[in-house]
């Protein structure tokens, strides 16, 4: 018996749970198997009445309930752009705790949305390009800033930079330029790879001049960063105040594009077939 979970990092905002559930339902229909929506952290604190009366779940307890019901295989499908610390640190620790109770359970974690060593998959960049084109002004080419959250891991920032390069190639002559930025970063030179921060990019001569900047949102779900009135909106509003004539036009979020389901379906099939996956934790033999 197998249990499949679509897993995000988690948020206290109900909108994030609604978004994750919507994508999990669409993926379930596409692959013909049940995919449960779960978070690594936080979402279980959302009041049930804020998420249609059905409590949001976190992966650890949900996987243990599946094991108690007879599951011997747990498939974790990351709803992440790259190999964040949540996937490479916290998740293995939590699944090791699961296996300590249920040693007969095998755990396999699929690749994140961008598989750096899995070939030149342009689907995510094409999705971003669709969102950018929907925000382009009618009579002039705009500047484009691709913004992510920012990460303490250079491998995750490399995903941002790779997507920015792909997006630039796909948009070609439709825009003036494409630049990558992060919403925030940790202090210290060790995390300089996140630069430029969005607020700094919007202050450069290329981006602060009067006219439109299309902000390609490298965020999956609405929350306190990418949601209405969130951190990104505040950064953009402050930049527009500093630079009269600048207008920042945020795109839709990545998880709002229907093509995200196709990418997830590919990552799930690769994991199920043993072709590509991020992590495997074999079942433990009896009395091991």
Provide structural commentary:
With 288 residues, the protein is an alpha/beta fold. It is 37% helix and 17% strand. The protein contains nine helices and nine strands. It has helices at residues 14-31, 59-68, 85-101, 123-133, 154-171, 198-201, 205-208, 231-242, 260-272; strands at residues 2-8, 35-39, 73-78, 106-109, 143-148, 177-182, 211-217, 246-250, 279-281. The model has no long low-confidence stretch (mean pLDDT 94).
Key traits:
9 helices; four-stranded parallel beta sheet; 288 residues; five-stranded mixed beta sheet; 17% strand; alpha/beta
Summarize it.
The protein is 37% helix and 17% strand.
Tell me the fraction of residues in β-strands, as a range: 15-25%
Strand neighbour order, sheet with most strands: 2-1-3-4-9
End-to-end gap: 22 Å
SS summary, helix count: 9
Uncertain residue ranges: none
Mean pLDDT: 94
User: How many strand elements?
Assistant: 9
What is the general shape? elongated
Q: Structural class given helices, strands, pairing?
A: alpha/beta
Radius of gyration: 20 Å
Residues in helices, as a percent range: 25-40%
């Amino acid at each position: 018996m197998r249990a499949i979970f679509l897993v995000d990092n988690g948020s206290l905002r109900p909108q994030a749970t609604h978004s994750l559930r919507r994508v999990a339902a669409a993926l379930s229909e596409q692959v013909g198997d049940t995919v449960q929506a779960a978070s690594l952290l936080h979402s279980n604190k959302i009041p049930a009445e804020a998420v249609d009366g059905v409590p949001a779940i976190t992966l650890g307890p949900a996987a243990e309930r599946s094991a108690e019901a007879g599951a011997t295989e747990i498939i974790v499908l990351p709803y992440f752009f790259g190999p964040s610390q949540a996937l490479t640190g916290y998740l293995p620790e939590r699944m090791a705790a699961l296996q300590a109770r249920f040693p007969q359970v095998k755990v396999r974690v699929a690749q994140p949305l961008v598989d750096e060593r899995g070939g030149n998959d342009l689907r995510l960049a094409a999705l971003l390009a669709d969102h950018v084109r929907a925000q382009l002004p009618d009579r002039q080419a705009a500047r484009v800033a691709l913004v992510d959250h920012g990460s303490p891991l250079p491998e995750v920032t490399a995903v941002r930079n790779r997507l920015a390069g792909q997006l630039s190639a796909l948009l070609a002559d439709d825009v003036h330029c494409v630049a990558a930025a992060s919403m925030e970063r940790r202090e210290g030179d060790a995390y300089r790879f996140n630069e430029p921060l969005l607020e700094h990019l919007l202050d450069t001569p290329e981006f602060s001049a009067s006219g439109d900047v299309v902000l390609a949102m490298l965020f999956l779900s609405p929350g306190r960063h990418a949601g209405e009135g969130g951190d990104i909106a505040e950064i953009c509003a402050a930049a527009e105040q500093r630079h009269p004539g600048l207008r920042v036009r945020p795109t839709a979020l990545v998880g709002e594009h229907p093509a995200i389901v196709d990418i997830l379906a590919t990552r799930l099939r690769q994991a199920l077939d043993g072709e590509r996956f991020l992590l495997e934790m074999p079942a433990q033999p009896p009395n091991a």
